[in-house]
């Protein structure tokens, strides 16, 4: 059963958590899903996912090499039905940009009880975060 929902995953840099979530949701929801990712910051625009993050994703079967970082834009709030923030700071940043009347905003970990996906760019726990992201993608697939 294809999922018509258009989902955007958002983190700070769009090179660690949100591209992993994009790949995990695409795998969990199947071909009918429209899934993308973006960052609230612009530092890494145009870059592929951070190599240690790609390696951790690959160990779980996620293909991320072709993804490229971009920054969230105002148009995203109407292009997507659901925008999933990786942490509460990302959510606050999205709420500050939100023109209203468009996408629903939520935390990526809401189906697992909420809270933050820790940023592996700083914690260096790429495998732990990848596993958490895949688990939450499965929970979204159950609840959408
Ligand atoms: P992400 O991790 O938000 O999960 O992509 C980060 C990567 C890079 C930076 C911050 C967070 N940075 O500031 O360069």
UniProtKB/TrEMBL annotation:
The active site is at 11 (nucleophile), 17, 119 (proton donor). Keywords: Hydrolase, Protein phosphatase. It is an enzyme of class 3 (hydrolase). One of its GO terms (molecular function) is protein tyrosine phosphatase activity. It holds the Pfam family LMWPc. Signal peptide: none annotated. Its EC number is 3.1.3.48. Gene3D superfamilies: 3.40.50.2300. It comes from the Bacteria. Residues 5-143 form the Phosphotyrosine protein phosphatase I domain. PANTHER family: LOW MOLECULAR WEIGHT PHOSPHOTYROSINE PROTEIN PHOSPHATASE, LOW MOLECULAR WEIGHT PROTEIN TYROSINE PHOSPHATASE. Belongs to the low molecular weight phosphotyrosine protein phosphatase family. This is protein-tyrosine-phosphatase.
